């Protein structure tokens, strides 16, 4: 009774502003995958529905009003108030309706109405009591979780900003009820399932059942969901009497899983007591939780689960969920283990893995992959989503029935990291949805040493999920059966609605942040409590023994059995002498490499196309391959311009890109271009998606009309996110080597909000996790007098992260110098100065026999620059990407006469050639473009420096001296020339900002460095 009092006291009536959603229709709801129809159970509904004046539409309207009236009788017109009172009081069809008071005869009308109500003296009380009960039920549904017993430690101080009103059962008075009403029988509304087969219950029983459903070890947060069917579905999952019933078999399986989870950590602690492992102690029920989700999903047809998780309990998940061989895990604790693979490798709690096995519960095959991740919490979330989307895409799983994502989170990280929010916002976008992710939060009520009250401003760590209307199931992790139940419901939810869902495992962390940390320094009282806390396995085992579900002997045998498994694996782990990080690959690419993981060849075939192919793709790019499709007049002009270029056998930037994408698609390679406004192109040059000017949302993607058996082209405007979307595309590119996956920044400088993906995944991914990735970053870059923002994609940062040695001329020789260099690098950085080279580098990305990330600084003004065009001749068979474009003019014809070689990259080339022409210095100054900055084309640059023996060497860039490329190229050129000559600098002075905001200053700076570049005396007397 005490519990009841507290509950009722804390549940206040629902204000009208939170009134029940419309129940105007009999709505179908999916149950167990099939749709069934809810029949209204409320008898009050029947007389209303039977009114002779009601038809389909008007009955909807009347029922809307009815619900509004239930919440607040004054919210409807008086005549409806009377009508509902009469109908609820049992007036027969036709008799409840009283015509509204005639104009001018108000007093008379009211008197008549009063007479009718007054004729049934208990009606008002009856209505009010039913209204009160309905409010009470709804209050439990909305706020029952506030008082559910979620915290195993019972110390939780979740702040809901609505302190209890008063204490004591008399507070049922809020609902207009009193103690004497407890034994009154009330009709139940259709918005509850607590009745089971009963349509009416005594109030005492109503409250008891609501307490059972909403205030025990499960707290359900769902009433913010806008969809009534979804709300009804959840209500029936938690309210139906007897839902929490488990078979003997289920209980025994659950116990066995708890044994494994608990004893795994104990085993590690025993063997390696001073090693960090980020143990799961305090949340051992995570393992059965995940296994339940996987079993249930497998039963409904899921064949592949892609998981991302942080450090906590990771080894346990690998061992007991993924079923990684125990010896492979144990041997990593051996510090003498040698690494077999090149690269840095990674610590054991960051590695990923991939496992294909039989799910014993469902007897179906399942593939489980756990993605490798950096220390950066939550960064893996979008990567998992992207990889999941790709797997769905490649197996034609358009609804997410076969492949699903499962993400684990810590409470502090889930609330604190913005990437969680960005990832949630991808969840329902057509080109990014994975059709529902199951999120499991290990909510141990602490983040390292920080209490929740200091770590978040929301009551729960899971509130971020509310933005996408995901239901949130909070559960006391010390109750394994409740955990299993919510996980079953979560998996069913995902399978039914294909939307995200969150399981919040409220638990504790028995040890410090890691096994070496002392938690009493900072959370003394919490840890005093934790020390008193009996382990969940022990509690559950005692419960089952008391119930007679298992005997103590059976329980002990289960423990002994698992200990034996661990000991045997431990013995085997001693034989492991070498650590193969390849065994920890999360995304294998079967067939792409040789059996020992090498590229199948070391050739890079020509990336050119025949003139027929160029013409064909060019024609598609200039046409609208759909009938009766009206495009914008401006676009017609653009397409006409393209047609003219095709007839003249030249390409601009957009057409060069078209040729690359179109040809790869034709050859069967999927192309996916994602980023903000990429469909049109930020600079309105691309137009890959045409919009019918007369029909809303009718679009045409000509790139998908190239040939009958081409691969599909995906071009998608993304949400306004960089971190999330780049992570997503990286994950997409991970799934298969046979796709060109590109992410384009709106402007190159915006990439830094995705810096974590670049620094932790793209640059070092292969070194840490032996997996390759061919993602392409398109970063618009260039100083156009546009101010400090949008000018620089920060090439210096990408170059600083390149792994080639500035001081060593690579010991590579022969024809495959270029391809070997590419093979050895961590990523490729290019700045192409013409469309043909851009075309080639995109095609090379797929035609080369391995995958490396490719960073391309792309132009802005060059998109329309009349000189920045390429002839088809530069794209024909036999042509290829030019790592450098040497001087081919007058200077190259008589190199002895050349006084200066200016090396440069990108758009400044055009400024340099114009200036050279103005000054008439074509014979004395050679200009060489370095198109591939990294890996640095040592061989080709050497050929250039050798060729001009009498020239001084200048690096010219438009970026400031401490930015751009200078610091990267200078030592490399010096290595090439054995440091025999200086490498002079012509460019802007060092600066803090990437560019000036003043147009005049911009032009002045430009002229100044051009003057330096062409002043042959500029460096005289300098060392
Ligand atoms: C982005 C990021 N910032 C900081 C850290 C350092 N760090 C590691 S664990 C941790 C606490 C995480 O708390 P929580 O998410 O609740 O997980 P728990 O360790 O409690 O399981 C922090 C701050 C990190 N790994 N990543
Ligand atoms: Mg935590």
Note down, in words, how this protein is organized.
The chain has 1023 residues and is an alpha/beta fold. It contains 34 helices and 30 strands. Helix 9 packs across helix 11 (314-322), helix 9 (248-271) packs antiparallel against helix 19 (536-547) and helix 10 packs parallel to helix 17. The chain binds thiamine diphosphate (TPP) and magnesium ion. Residues 410-412, 444, 446-447 line the site of magnesium ion.
What are the SSEs and their pairings?
Layout: H1 2-10, E1 28-31, E2 34-37, H2 45-49, H3 56-71, H4 78-88, H5 106-118, H6 123-147, E3 185-187, E4 200-202, H7 203-214, E5 218-221, H8 228-239, H9 248-271, H10 286-299, E6 304-308, H11 314-322, H12 326-330, E7 338-339, E8 353-359, E9 364-370, H13 380-394, E10 403-410, H14 411-416, H15 418-424, E11 437-443, H16 452-455, E12 472-476, H17 480-497, E13 501-506, H18 524-532, H19 536-547, H20 552-573, E14 578-579, H21 611-621, H22 633-648, E15 650-651, H23 653-666, E16 670-675, E17 690-691, E18 699-700, E19 713-717, H24 723-735, E20 739-744, H25 755-762, H26 765-769, E21 776-780, H27 795-800, H28 817-824, E22 828-830, H29 835-847, E23 854-858, E24 870-871, E25 884-885, H30 890-893, E26 900-904, H31 908-919, E27 925-930, E28 932-934, H32 938-947, E29 952-960, H33 966-976, E30 983-988, H34 999-1014
Parallel strand pairs: 6-9, 6-10, 7-14, 10-11, 11-13, 12-13, 16-19, 16-20, 20-21, 21-23, 22-23, 26-27, 26-29, 29-30
Antiparallel strand pairs: 1-2, 3-4, 5-12, 8-9, 15-24, 17-18, 22-28, 25-27
Helix pairs in contact: 4-5, 6-7, 9-11, 9-19, 9-20, 10-11, 10-17, 13-24, 21-22, 21-23, 23-29, 24-25
The protein binds thiamine diphosphate (TPP) and magnesium ion.
């Amino acid at each position: 009774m005490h519990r009841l009092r507290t509950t009722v006291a804390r549940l206040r009536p629902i204000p009208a502003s939170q009134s029940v959603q419309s129940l105007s229709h009999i709505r179908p709801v999916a149950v167990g995958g099939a749709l069934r129809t809810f029949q209204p159970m409320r008898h009050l509904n029947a007389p209303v529905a039977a009114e002779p004046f009601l038809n389909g539409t008007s009955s909807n309207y009347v029922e809307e009003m009815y619900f509004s009236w239930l919440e607040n009788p004054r919210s409807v017109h008086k005549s409806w108030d009377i009508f509902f009172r009469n109908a609820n009081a049992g007036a027969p069809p036709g008799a409840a309706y009283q015509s509204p008071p005639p104009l001018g005869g108000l007093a008379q009308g009211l008197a008549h109405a009063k007479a009718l109500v007054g004729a049934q003296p208990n009606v008002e009380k009856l209505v009010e009591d039913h209204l009160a009960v309905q409010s009470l039920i709804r209050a439990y549904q909305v706020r029952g979780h506030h008082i559910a017993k979620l915290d195993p430690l019972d110390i939780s101080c979740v702040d809901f900003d609505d302190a209890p009103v008063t204490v004591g059962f008399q507070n049922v008075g809020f609902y207009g009820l009193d103690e004497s009403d407890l034994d009154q029988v009330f009709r139940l509304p259709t918005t509850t399932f607590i009745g089971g087969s009963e349509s009416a219950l005594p109030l005492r029983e109503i409250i008891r059942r609501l307490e059972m459903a909403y205030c025990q070890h499960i707290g359900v947060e769902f009433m913010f969901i806008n969809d009534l069917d979804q709300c009804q579905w959840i209500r029936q999952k938690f309210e139906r009497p007897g839902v929490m019933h488990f078979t003997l078999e289920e209980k025994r399986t659950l116990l066995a899983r708890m044994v494994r989870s608990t004893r795994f950590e104990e085993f590690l602690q025993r063997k390696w007591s001073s090693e960090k492992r980020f143990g799961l102690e305090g949340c051992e029920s995570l393992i059965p939780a995940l296994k339940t989700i996987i079993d249930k999903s497998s039963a409904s047809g899921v064949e592949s689960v892609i998981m991302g998780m942080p450090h906590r309990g990771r080894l346990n998940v690998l061992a007991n969920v993924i079923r990684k061989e125990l010896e492979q895990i144990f041997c990593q604790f051996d510090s003498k283990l040698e690494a077999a693979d090149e690269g840095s490798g990674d610590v054991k709690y960051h590695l990923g893995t991939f496992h294909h096995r039989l799910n014993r519960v469902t007897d179906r095959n399942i593939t489980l992959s756990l993605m490798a991740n950096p220390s950066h919490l939550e960064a893996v979330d979008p990567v998992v989503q992207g990889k999941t989307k790709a797997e769905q895409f490649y197996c034609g799983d358009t609804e997410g029935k076969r492949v699903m994502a499962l993400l684990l989170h810590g409470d502090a990280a889930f609330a604190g990291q913005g990437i969680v929010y960005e990832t949630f916002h991808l969840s329902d976008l057509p080109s990014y949805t994975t059709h529902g992710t199951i999120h499991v939060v290990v909510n141990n009520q602490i983040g390292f040493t920080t209490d929740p009250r200091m770590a978040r401003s929301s009551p729960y760590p899971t509130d971020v999920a509310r933005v996408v209307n995901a239901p949130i199931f909070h559960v006391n992790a010390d109750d394994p059966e409740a955990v299993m139940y919510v996980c079953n419901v979560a998996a069913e939810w995902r399978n039914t609605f294909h939307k995200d869902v969150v399981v919040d495992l409220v638990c504790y962390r028995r040890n410090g942040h890691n096994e070496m940390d002392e938690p009493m320094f900072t959370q003394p009282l919490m840890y005093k409590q934790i020390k008193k806390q009996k382990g969940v396995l022990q509690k559950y085992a005692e419960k089952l023994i008391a119930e007679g579900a298992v005997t103590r002997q059976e329980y002990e045998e289960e423990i002994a059995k698992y200990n034996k498994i661990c000991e045997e694996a431990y013995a085997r782990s001693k034989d492991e002498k070498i650590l193969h990080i390849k065994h920890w690959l999360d995304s294998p690419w079967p067939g792409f490499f040789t059996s020992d993981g090498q590229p199948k060849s070391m050739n890079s075939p020509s990336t050119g196309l025949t003139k027929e192919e160029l013409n064909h793709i060019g024609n598609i790019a200039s046409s609208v391959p759909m009938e009766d499709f009206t495009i914008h007049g401006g676009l017609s002009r653009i397409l006409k311009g393209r047609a003219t270029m095709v007839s003249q056998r030249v390409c601009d930037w957009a057409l060069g890109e078209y040729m690359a994408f179109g040809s790869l698609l034709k050859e069967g390679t999927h192309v996916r271009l994602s980023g903000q406004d990429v469909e049109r192109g930020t600079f309105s040059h691309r137009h890959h998606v045409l919009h019918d000017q007369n029909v809303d949302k009718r679009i045409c993607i000509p790139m998908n009309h190239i040939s009958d058996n081409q691969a599909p082209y995906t071009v998608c405007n993304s949400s306004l996110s960089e971190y999330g979307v780049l992570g997503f595309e990286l994950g997409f590119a991970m799934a298969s080597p046979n796709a060109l996956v590109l992410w384009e920044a709106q402007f190159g400088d915006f990439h830094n909000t995705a810096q974590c993906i670049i620094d932790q995944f793209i640059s070092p991914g292969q070194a840490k996790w032996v997996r390759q990735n061919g993602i392409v970053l398109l970063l618009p870059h260039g100083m156009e007098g546009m101010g400090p923002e949008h000018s620089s994609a920060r090439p210096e940062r990408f170059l600083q992260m390149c792994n080639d040695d500035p001081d060593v001329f690579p010991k590579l020789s022969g024809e495959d110098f270029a391809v070997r260099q590419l093979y050895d690098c961590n990523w490729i950085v290019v700045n192409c100065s013409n469309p043909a080279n851009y075309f080639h580098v995109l095609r090379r990305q797929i035609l080369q026999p391995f995958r490396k990330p490719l960073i391309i600084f792309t132009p802005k003004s060059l998109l329309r620059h009349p000189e920045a065009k390429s002839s088809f001749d530069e794209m024909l068979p036999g042509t290829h990407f030019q790592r450098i474009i040497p001087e081919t003019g007058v200077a190259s014809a008589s190199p002895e006469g050349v006084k200066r070689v200016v090396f440069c990259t990108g758009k400044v080339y055009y400024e340099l050639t114009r200036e050279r022409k103005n000054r008439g210095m074509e014979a004395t100054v050679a200009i060489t473009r370095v198109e591939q900055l990294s890996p640095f084309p040592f061989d080709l640059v050497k050929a250039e420096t050798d060729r001009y023996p009498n020239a001084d060497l200048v690096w010219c860039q438009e970026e400031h001296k401490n930015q751009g490329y200078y610091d990267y190229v200078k030592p490399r050129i010096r290595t090439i020339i054995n440091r025999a000559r200086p490498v002079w600098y012509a460019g802007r002075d060092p600066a803090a900002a990437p560019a000036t905001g003043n147009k005049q200053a911009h032009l002045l700076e430009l002229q100044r460095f051009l003057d330096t570049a062409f002043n042959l005396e500029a460096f005289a007397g300098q060392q």
